[in-house]
Every structure is written in C-alpha cells, then in structure tokens.
Amino acid sequence: MRELSFVEGDATDPAGAGPRILAHVCNDIGAWGRGIVQSISRRWPEPEREFRRWSAEPAFRLGAVQLVPVAPELWVANMVGQHGIMSRRGLRTRTGYEPGAGPPVRYEAIRECLGALVTHAEAHHASVHMPRIGCGLAGGSWELVEPLILETLGAHDIPTTVYDLPG
C-alpha cells in the first residue's frame, strides 16, 4: 500500500511531471463558488462550465465523478461527495433547507468517488493531487477521510499528494 505524501502548497498547481489529476469534492446541488473551486476557476474555466452542465443531467448524483481535461496530461476530477451546502439557515439541498441536519459531507459518496478515481488514474497512468477533500466547506473529519483515500488510491499504489495551503 502506498502512503500519502503531504506538502505545503496549492493543489491547483500540482507538483511533478507526467499525467496528473487534481481531485476535489463538490456538492450535489450544482453550486460552485466557494473553497478550492475559486482557485480552480481562476486557472481554468472548463471545470466550472462542465460541472454546471453536468449538474442538470441524470448521471449527476452523490458518488459520481466527472473528469475534465484542463491541459495536456492534467485533469480536474469533480467528485460529488457533499449533500447540499451549509448556509445560515441550515443545510441547503435541492429541495429546501434542513436546519440542524449536520455537515454536508457524505463519507460513503467520497469512498465511491475515490473508487472511480482509481479507474481514471490507472487508465491515464496518473498521480492524484488534492486538498484535504471533504474537510473544508463540507465539514468532514480528516481522521475519517484519510483512511478512505488509503483504502482506495493507496491500495492501488496510486501516487497521491495532499496539499495544505501555507500559513
């Protein structure tokens, strides 16, 4: 089993050469605009455009992954691992607000996304680069997310780097 590498830096500027996939967690309501997606959109317009298009399709659901090419040998993986988004009124979903519903992270959906990401990484002979997925706006716990990454990407010997922003 391959261990994770941790670096200080920007996940939207993935280190190294060769095929690389930048993975991040998205919500299941089609909202885009906070967290790492701001940096992604500043670098490349395609992931946001494709995510918004995809969010209207039947295939868009928790656990799904969309791989968007942004440069030669570089893809952004939009992984739907978050149910709704947090707001002042509570959890906002496609059907309304759920006050007191808890954080939007969905660990089983993240596990499913990572399983699909294994297939993509193997097909492209790519390394995977990510922030601490599911632990920012989604409200997840790294102690629960890290084992999911190790059980999927790590178990398939896929080089994976986790980025923490400086400071």
TrEMBL record:
<dbReference type="InterPro" id="IPR002589">
    <property type="entry name" value="Macro_dom"/>
</dbReference>
<feature type="domain" description="Macro">
    <location>
        <begin position="1"/>
        <end position="167"/>
    </location>
</feature>
<dbReference type="InterPro" id="IPR043472">
    <property type="entry name" value="Macro_dom-like"/>
</dbReference>
<dbReference type="GO" id="GO:0140291">
    <property type="term" value="P:peptidyl-glutamate ADP-deribosylation"/>
</dbReference>
<protein>
    <submittedName>
        <fullName>Appr-1-p processing protein</fullName>
    </submittedName>
</protein>
<dbReference type="InterPro" id="IPR050892">
    <property type="entry name" value="ADP-ribose_metab_enzymes"/>
</dbReference>
